[in-house]
Design a protein that fits this description.
221 residues, alpha+beta, Translation Initiation Factor IF3, Alpha-Beta Plaits, 2 domains, 5-stranded antiparallel beta sheet, 3 helices, 10 strands
Length: 221
């Protein structure tokens, strides 16, 4: 009996609350005196890094890792609105990156440091632990295959066929039939919603989304 080939895409999406938060901030000052700008920037850096060392523990947190960029110092002479070149202005800046395992501690810390002069919070990204992400990806892959089987079965029964036999299973675009590959979705870095009341700051990260897609081919009879 001639078999009918059925090719489908299976997919599955999982969501999970963020387990890690990584904040990027810059520390910097501007001014006409190079030594003063440099001193204020290094002083602010020393204060922040001392606090981070006290909070850092790779296993228990609340800070699991942190990095500090090299200090950059530059000067330029801005122009006035009338076209006059003004005295030189010096800029000193460095970056800090901090990853928290305790998201409440992250919220408190960001709320405090964002009020300090010379500190700019550039952004926060949210993620999962490596072990959690791997577990979720494996589960999503299994469910995506189940979804492909279910699709193929529905198509087969709609044609009056009762037997569905798997022929090929691949990541998107790897079945070798010349079809355009579909880029699998990557875990999303969720945005943070901010709630402020007085001097308090509460971060509400969105869930991390993991989507897996597979392409599958079946022979139905």
């Amino acid at each position: 009996m001639t078999e009918t080939i059925i090719t489908v895409q299976g997919e599955y999406e999982l969501r999970h609350a963020a387990e890690r938060g990584s904040v990027v901030l810059t520390v910097g000052f501007d001014g006409p005196d190079r030594n003063d700008v440099l001193a204020r920037t290094t002083e602010r850096q020393a204060s922040l890094t001392s606090e981070l060392r006290d909070m850092h523990n790779a296993q228990t947190g609340p800070v699991t890792s942190w990095t500090s960029d090299n200090l950059r110092v530059a000067g330029d002479r801005p122009w006035s609105q009338t076209g006059e070149q003004l005295p030189i202005v010096y800029h000193a800046e460095l970056g800090l990156g901090v990853t928290f395992s305790d998201l409440a501690a992250l919220s408190d810390w960001v709320g405090a440091v964002s009020l300090l002069s010379g500190v700019t919070v550039a952004g926060i990204t949210w993620s999962l632990t490596d072990a959690r992400r791997q577990s979720l990806v494996q589960e999503a892959r299994r469910r995506a295959v189940e979804n492909a089987v279910a699709k193929a079965t529905v198509y087969a029964t709609s044609l009056g066929l009762s037997t569905v036999r798997p022929v090929a299973l691949a990541d998107p675009g790897m079945l070798g039939d010349g079809s355009a590959p579909v880029q699998p979705a990557q875990p999303m870095f969720a945005r943070a919603a901010l709630d402020s009341a007085g001097e308090s700051l509460t971060l509400k990260p969105e869930e991390i989304v993991i989507t897996v897609q597979v392409h599958a081919r079946f022979a139905a009879s």
